[in-house]
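User: Mind token order:
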Amino acid sequence: MLCCGIQFPIGQIRVWLMASTAWMLLSAVLACCLPGNCPGQEQDRFAARVITAAGSELLGELQNRELNFVGIDESGASRPLVLRLSEIAELSLVADPEADALSSISALIGQLGAEDYYQRQAAEEQLAAEAKRVEVRLLLEKATSNPLLEVRYRARRLLENSGVTVLSQPTRWEYDRVLLRNGTRLQGDAGSFSVQLNWGGEAVRLERKQLLGFFAGEKNLTPAPPEAPASGDATAQLDHVPAEWEAWATVDFETGIAGRKLRRDAIVTEEFAGEGLLFKTGFPADQNSAMVVSPYPFNFENKPAGGNSICVRRNTANYVKLFDGVSVIRFCEPGRPGSFSGVNNFGIYAARIDYPLSFVMQAMNSDGQLVGEVQSNDDSCVWFGIQSPEPIVEIRILSNPLGLQMDLQIDNDYALDHLRRSRPVAAVPAGPLERNTVCMRNGDLLAVDQIRPEAGGFRFRELVSGREMSVVADDVNWWARAGSGRPQPAADSQGWRAMLPDRSVIDIGWSGDGFRARRFSGSPVDRDEIVALWSARDWCRYPVQGDFSHGQNVLVFPACRIAVPETQVGAAGISWEADQATALFQPVMLSRSEEGAADPTGRMMAASTGLMPESSEIGWEEKGNWNVPTVWMKTPPVQKPQLGYVSLENGEQLSFGPGARFQIGAGDAGQLRLVDGDGSELVLNWNQVWRMKFPAGGNTE
């Protein structure tokens, strides 16, 4: 037989065919039984969101099979486990695992029985510095039954000299945490390991020191939906929990996210990050303040009773006064403390309130604007609740500024408990970021070196993988520059700002017979286009539900709000008819409606009336902040998802997209060109932009 010009005997051909057939059958069997391919065997690769220490969150496929994990129970006992990564729903890693510290403590306890006296003394001195920690005491108590007399004696002495009679929780638990898909929670030490991530079609190897953890499952991998168009005003509840809120998750501060009981002074900064909650204080960062667990119980009639609450601790390094200060609650996507989200509904109980009207809860949006506010009443324990169609990204609880201005007796001490909120919704960052950050529409959150614009998109280097990336603008949700944040109002500014119907915020001034933009070559701005006016020296303050039922225009002063039929604007400033002004107060839903019940509405109405400005006009050059209002000529608009916006370092924000006043035009490299509706242009350097949000459906043309 000839084959390609070569002659083979028939017998050799038969043998070759049989061998080839056998090899193909064997290959098929082997291929079938390779890991992940055998019938009934789970795939080794699985989708996960990997959270990195550098700030990036990468969606990809993990190719690892198993994780060696040392589980540690509440008594300190440990046991080795081998966990399949496909069984893990969440893995949270700490920088310094408690297991490492306990290992060194165990070694020191062993040295209590060393032959060398000085080694025994040194070990005891080191242990004495840690003897008040609950995990160390558990190990020392176990050592009191050690076979060596010297170890038993020194362990007892350490326990006696510590001065602790009741086990207390350490400042913070430093265990790695695992949540299995079946709901089981584990704590312990994941040890040193690395993961292989298939991200964007390429393999990325990540060591443990580069990781904060990972999340698997559809709810953690699906990008948050864009903000839905919303309308209406914020509403407030005081001492009234709406029935529909009862079904929402409650945080009672009795146990942490892993089910462990929280003890006094436990810091809760990121304790509930797994539930999308972050806690901080209004004190400067260098003061070491924090929100901590307090033992103050909420035992009031018709209020939920509980053993724990939370409060502000001014300095965690020493026992300074508790309960006193500003509480700040921010929202993130569950388990992702570096992310940003908002809620439409938030409520919490406050107690230890000795004087009426002492406290106020404020709800802020991502632009730092006050979208809702509610004051406490005459009760010692009260429910604060706010519902807002616009996402609330931050809650602040503080002493009532209105009461302070009125010289009322104000209580600075309070505790918080029984928090409720609705599910997270998407939001853009409001505060400063540690790194340049790009949020992609597929859910990737990328920490990058420098955001460099190019034709149709941006170019940057992702910091974890070192990958140089080029992305089109339609694939980007938002980006923000490091160190930037919501610009503070300029105290020396002489200008005014206007909000337009598309939610743009621009600097304006009066020139001749009307308003003109300070940029865009002095482009005219019709009064009919203006939604609100306020001084550039101050924040924009929002009206609340029902205000516009009292007048066509609403003036929001820091100390009161008034409604008027109309405001007049001209070369001198803004004016209104004082005898037609109506003082307003936040309407709230009260749990008590019987006659004679303590209702702060009347008191605050009188207070607001007493603080109404004597003058009925504001000049454009007015310098005082306390008597300059935000003048609302129309109800506040909500940012539409089909519009994007550019946030500038001077505080202006320019919306672009279908129906917006401004559009993005073609510009040179390193520059952003915006075109006004009348054709005038504004050319900006990219370093003048601190944040940019793109339309939900792409279409940045």
About this structure: Helices lie at 10-33, 98-111, 117-128, 134-143, 149-161, 218-221, 401-405, 600-610.
